[in-house]
Amino acid sequence: MRILSIVGARPQFVKLAPIAAEMTAAGHDHIIVHTGQHYDANMSDVFFADLRIPAPDVHLGVGSGSHGVQTGTMLAALDGVIAEHRPDWVLVYGDTNSTVAGALAAVKLHVPLAHLEAGLRSFNRRMPEEHNRVLTDHAADLCLAPTEVAMTHLAHEGLADRSVLVGDVMTDVCLRVARATAGLRPPLPAGVDAEGAYLVSTIHRAENTDDPRRLDAIISGLAGLPLPVVIMAHPRLVARVGEFGLTLDTGSLHSTTPMSYPDMIASIAGAAGVVTDSGGLQKEAFLVRTPCTTVRTETEWTETVDLGWNVLATDLSALPALVTRSRPAETAAAPYGDGHAATRVVEVLLGRPA
Ligand code: UD1
Predict the structure, then answer these.
(1) Is the dihedral of CA 234, 236, 242, 248 positive or negative?
(2) What is residue 164's predicted lDDT score, i.e. its pLDDT?
(3) Ligand 1 centroid to 162 CA: how many Å?
(4) pLDDT band at residue 348 using 50, 70 and 90 as cut-offs
(5) Candidates 136, 204, 300: which one to mutate for ligand 1, based on the most atoms within 8 Å of Cβ?
(6) Residue 119: which of 172, 81, 164 has the closest Cα?
């Protein structure tokens, strides 16, 4: 059995880690293709090193660009790669431009396509990720869903017969790394005491960063919070802050570069709260039981909200009240699975020829 994984952006490296480990353990042929969507060392290489992912077999080096140019460049380059390796399955992950490029390349070559993290929906058609995930699910021969909610969305779209609930592979990694880093002091910027109360923030989505007034309002909101806020600044955020003449290190805000995965998990585990627009971080905050406030109008990870561990900050003026709200009731609920999703993914791929 030969599986060809296509990844390119930071959260996909996290999802790839347990799949690559399972493939190696099961003795199968696993080709890793890195599109090059993320290329800074702290957005890519550190994840391969820290999560012990084998180096990519193929690196397309596409880099940044408009959605059309970036996706089209990947698509053109993937044709030859898939034709050369002739995998039994192409496996794509999540909802980035690398995902939809990989999906199109596979189906055009009639190679069976599996989509990991299928069925998530924000129902917000202004998000590029929403189009990427809907198109990929409908192209796929096999939709590997992380949650019951995702299975319901797939069924509503007529995809039930090709969907399987496997659990969330990011949970596999998060639980393992949280155990390994328990009690470690995270490397927080100067001026923030890792033993004291602090918040962790990430803001990177186009809808929050690309409009100067919206970004200014978010930064002012974070800067005015009553606790120190460590903001791990994604390159898109740094670029927009520069373009718009804003500043990140103001008021309560302390900026730092994107962190490695273990440092990030240690940081959120020790934090009083998380303020983010990242999907993965909402879930990771829940898994280490740190309350999360999400700077978006909707979330794909609705279980975190239903269980009381995540609140949507649709109105920025509510941020101070939201980040100081009392902790929700403890829960033993495990909507994201038991930490063994990757084992099921590989079993399903082996047992289910398209
Ligand atoms: C992408 C995904 C998003 C995911 C996020 C994780 C799409 C449409 N979006 O968003 O779903 O949540 O990755 O981080 O695929 N840049 C660098 N160095 C890098 C990577 C990016 O400087 O290594 C800068 C470039 O200016 C680039 C910008 O960040 O134009 C945006 O990068 P891009 O990969 O297009 O989208 P993300 O915002 O990272």
Answers:
(1) negative
(2) 98
(3) 30
(4) very high
(5) 204
(6) 164
Cβ of 344 less than 6 Å from ligand 1: no
Cross-strand partners of 192? none
**Token pair for residue 171?**
């949970």
Cα(102)–Cα(123) distance, integer angstroms: 23
Six-digit token string for 145: 């869903």
**Which is the catalytic residue, given 204, 234, 254, 340?**
204
Burial class (CB in 10 A: 0-12, 13-18, 19+), 84: exposed
Q: Are 135 and 82 in contact (CB under 8 A)?
A: no
The 10s digit of each residue's pLDDT in 167-183 is 999 999 999 999 999 99
Backbone angles phi, psi at 62, to 5 degrees: -75, -30
| Distance from C-alpha of 28 to C-alpha of 227, rounded to nearest angstrom | 49
Please, are residues 291 and 273 in contact by the beta-carbon 8 Å criterion?
yes
Rounded Cα gap, residues 229 and 234, in angstroms: 15
Say if residue 354's pLDDT is above 70: no
Could you tell me the distance, in angstroms and rounded to a whole number, from the CA of residue 100 to the centre of ligand 1?
15
Confidence tier at 9 by pLDDT (50, 70, 90) = very high
Number of the ligand 1 atom closest to the C-alpha atom of 38: 23
Nearest to 299 by CA among 149, 98, 143: 149
- The H-or-E segment that residue 44 falls in is none
Residues 6+ apart with CB under 8 A from 84: none
Residue 97 CB less than 6 A away from ligand 1: yes
Distance between CA atoms of residues 263 and 325, nearest Å:
25
HEC string of 67-125 equals HHHHHHHHHHHHHHHHHHHCCCEEEEECCCHHHHHHHHHHHHCCCCEEEECCCCCCCCC
Q: Which atom of ligand 1 is nearest to the CA of 44?
A: 23
Angle separating helix axes 261-269 and 169-181, nearest 10 degrees: 70
Q: Where are the beta strands (DSSP E) in the chain?
A: 2-7, 29-34, 58-59, 89-93, 113-116, 142-145, 163-165, 199-202, 229-232, 253-256, 273-276, 292-294, 310-312
**Amino acid of residue 308:** G
Examine the residue annotation and report whether 110 is marked as an active-site residue of this protein.
Answer: no
